[in-house]
Amino acid sequence: MQRSERSMSISIKILPQEVAEKIAAGEVIERPASVVKELLENSLDAGSKKISLEIFGGGSGLIRVADDGTGMNPQETELSLERYATSKINFLEDLSSLQTFGFRGEALPSIAAISKIEISTRTVDLPYGTKVLVEGGKIIEVKEIGRDTGTTVVVRELFFNTPVRRKFLKSRNTEIRHIIEEVSDQALANFKTAFQLIVEGKQILNFTQTEQLDERVGQIFGKDFWHETVKVQAEVFGLSLSGFVSKLSFLSFSRPRQIFFVNRRRINSRLLNHAVYLGYGEDLGHKHPQIILFLQSEPKEIDVNVHPTKREIRFADEGAIHHFVFTAVREALKIKETEKTIELSKPEPHFFRPIIPEEGIQTAFLLPEEKKEPKVVIPHFWQLHNEFIFAATKEGYIIIDQHAAHERILFEEALDKTPRESQQLLFPLTIELSPAEFQLFEESVVIFTRLGFSLRVFSGRTIVVDAVPVSLGRFADARVIKEILNELVSLPQVPTKTLEEKIAASYGCKAAIKSGQELSPEEMNFLIDRLFATQNPLLCPHGRPTIIKISLEELERKFGRE
Ligand code: ADP
Ligand code: MG
Question: Is the CB–ligand 1 distance for residue 105 below 6 Å?
Fold first, then answer.
């Protein structure tokens, strides 16, 4: 890596005031995952091939990052803790050719100010290393040590001297999830480096060194990912784009994982997001694609100095970037269309697995026995465009949105603590979860079991679904488990909601009958029965109406019969 040579020849110095003043400084350490981000970036900037991260107590107890990078000599080690001390830029103009993640010289002093930090490091050209102990920003001890080339930073008791911040930390598992996401992001963008993450003594992630992005993507997202996405690859002068977006048949109703990297830096960008959505055109409808895209551009075309945590950047030529990304995505999806015809000849996995064999299918929705026989009493139901159910009432008729109605039913079932009945799957389904999804799975398996799923861990991060809730009827799709977990790990955290509430909302949304699904009269009847048994039958969990009532009077008025 060219960076390693750079940081060896240029030692750390304090940025001149006028440069320091112009860099977008700010609070960068919000939570343990921010420490992880900064330390990993430093290790990567030091040209490391192998990085090991260990955490205890959700990261606020201890974070240890060990790398095999260039290391620092004794003077550099002490200097690295000074504000605006960096080896990565000298002048503001250097930003236009920036190859490193860091450039502000702020991370180490910011972390050191709010924790007990220990840095031990050695460069290749010195026979001994250095160890520095710092507490609340003050150097306590500096000594010579023996060690390999590289750097180990240990951050203990984060926020120990800022009790308010400490109080705002989320549950240990939430913080761990953020850390897993952070490591996975860095690992995606830096596939030539090996990463491991050890949480409370247990190895959670182990990404070996690879030469291919695809290989790293597979390590992180599992093999299902290849089936669900198309590859995007495009290049024009000075710009290149690579990565993956959902196939048209794997779009989802809620926003799944959408990740952009620009020059290996994970960023949020409405511009890029918009360009991708535009690439799908009308095919998208109200759905959302998974996105994992890497854009490479010349550093001078990008301003990284606009946001304290560097999560946002500015493009010099927004129009050109937008057009490039839009076209690349559109082309990738077009190619996929032709491939699709080939794929169809292979047996596709069932989207909706038939659960009850043959003649049972139509009545799978009918749970209580007595409802099976008296077909005669079924009132007149009529399904319009496989989306709305019309039912006659004494005063007129009602129109029910089948998805919203089922959503309300499932949502309330999930919030109610009674264990629900299960139906066995004919073919148990194995699902590979991402590390973050698996972490959440372990926390929420009790809740899923209560809903009527039967789940077990198969090996590693692969789980098996043996049974699904009876309430899902013949539309049950065991993969909803992954969809829910994925939604919950990618959603912004809503601190006021419990895990149960979040799962209930997501379960209702994802597992409910979709519009477009044809229902038998029995199924319609059952749905309406169950809807009226809920606490709040008139609204779906998002607050939209489930039912519209039209009275006879209203009809008569409309026909001018008054
Ligand atoms: P920045 O990354 O913006 O330069 P930091 O405060 O993160 O600022 O780090 C200060 C300096 O310490 C870096 O510029 C680098 O020279 C040195 N440094 C920090 N971490 C490491 C590491 N893991 N290996 C080698 N040098 C490091
Ligand atoms: Mg840094």
Answer: yes
